[in-house]
Write a structure and sequence with these properties.
The protein has a single domain, classed as Sulfite Oxidase, Chain A, domain 2 (Alpha-Beta Complex). The protein is built from seven helices and 13 strands. Strands 1, 4, 5, 8, 9, 10, 12 and 13 form an eight-stranded mixed beta sheet that branches. The chain has a five-stranded mixed beta sheet with strand order 3-2-11-6-7. By secondary structure, the chain is an alpha+beta fold. Bound molecules: ligand MTE. The site of ligand MTE has 17 residues, from loops.
Length: 319
């Protein structure tokens, strides 16, 4: 993922090594002159084995044929730009996030707007463990046992009106808790805050869409979007907004962070599709974290049951 014209810091996965190394050298030099925004305030998040356990019933069908990715990888190889743009920044810097107390405002085109406390969200429906694969637009994937409730349980609670056609998700804006939101020399190289994502209402109501509060049997680690994020397994990972504080039901297609930053590269739909290359790399294959050989990417990340949501839609045009 590359942000605007700025030297966004793509992972070494998709960057020629020489470019990556020279960028590292540049950053090391730059760091000697000035700290990255918020770096001085950053602190590592609590060790994952100290997080409270969360009981959830294994979902009978949402399992995975492949073994789960090692927990160590899932909590150290992250994208969470509010804590920095390198893969290990969130696991080094996300200790400043305070996931409790936490509220999520649900508003907009609904009959019953409501502010949910995180403890209410956890009790909206019986917690389920669902093992999904997460395919990042950058060309890597993981298999993760998430814990959560169907997003539809929350949406039905607020009763969307007939005019509600889309759902917007907003991540927290608080530079004290999210140090990379501080304005600094390198702010130009990141996104505009808040991080905003969106779904069509029928996508949001699809049974696969999970309002996620935990993973690997425990509450969500800060670096993975504590205390609540969405997971939409048939879409590229950037659709799954982390550390959500607001959900809005709206009539028009939301302007999402990545599609605003690079409209030609990141569309609103962002369904996993091996037949639609990213302008700068193929999406035909992916590297499962922990493996060496690349594997073929499947349409809708293998979740073919969502195909009927897109009947008649040109998936190349609406990428
Ligand atoms: N949500 C916020 N608020 N900020 C981010 O930078 N990155 C996205 C998504 N959600 C991101 C975010 C991207 S690009 C991916 S691939 C996934 O989070 C990564 O989730 P993970 O770190 O739990 O694997």
């Amino acid at each position: 993922m590359l942000i605007r014209h700025a030297p966004r810091y793509p992972s070494s996965e998709i960057t020629p090594e020489a470019v990556y190394l020279s960028r590292r050298a540049f950053m090391v030099g730059a760091a000697a002159l000035t700290l990255l925004p918020g770096e001085a305030d950053a602190a590592p998040p609590p060790p994952v084995d100290k997080l409270p356990p969360l009981k959830a019933a294994p979902h009978p069908t949402y399992r995975h044929a492949d073994p789960a990715t090692k927990l160590e990888s899932a909590v150290t190889y992250n994208n969470f730009y509010e804590f920095g743009t390198e893969k290990d920044d969130p696991s080094r810097n996300a200790g400043t996030l305070r996931p409790r107390p936490w509220n999520v405002v649900v508003e907009g085109l609904v009959q019953k707007p409501k502010t949910f406390d995180i403890d209410e969200i956890v009790k909206l429906a019986p917690l389920e463990e669902r093992i999904y694969s997460l395919r990042c637009v950058e060309g890597w994937s993981m298999v993760i046992p998430w814990i959560g409730v169907p997003l539809s349980a929350l949406l039905k609670h607020v009763e969307p009106t007939g005019n509600a056609k889309y759902v917007e998700f907003y991540t927290l804006v608080d530079p004290e808790q999210m140090p990379a939101q501080k304005k600094g020399l390198f702010s130009f190289a990141s996104l505009d805050w808040p991080y905003v994502e969106g779904l069509r209402l029928d996508e949001a109501l699809h049974p696969l869409t999970l309002l996620t509060v935990g993973m690997y049997g425990r509450v969500l680690p800060n670096q993975n979007g504590a205390p609540v994020r969405v997971v939409i397994p048939w879409k590229y990972g950037f659709k799954s907004a982390k550390s959500i504080v607001k959900i809005r039901l709206v009539a028009d297609e939301p302007k999402t962070s990545w599609s605003k930053s690079q409209p030609s590269e990141y569309g609103f739909y962002s369904n996993v599709n091996p037949g639609v290359p990213h302008p700068r790399w193929s999406q035909a294959t992916e590297r499962r974290i922990g493996e060496f050989r690349r594997r073929e990417t499947k349409l809708f990340n293998g979740y073919g049951e969502v195909a009927s949501l897109y009947t008649g839609l040109d998936l190349k045009k609406f990428y």
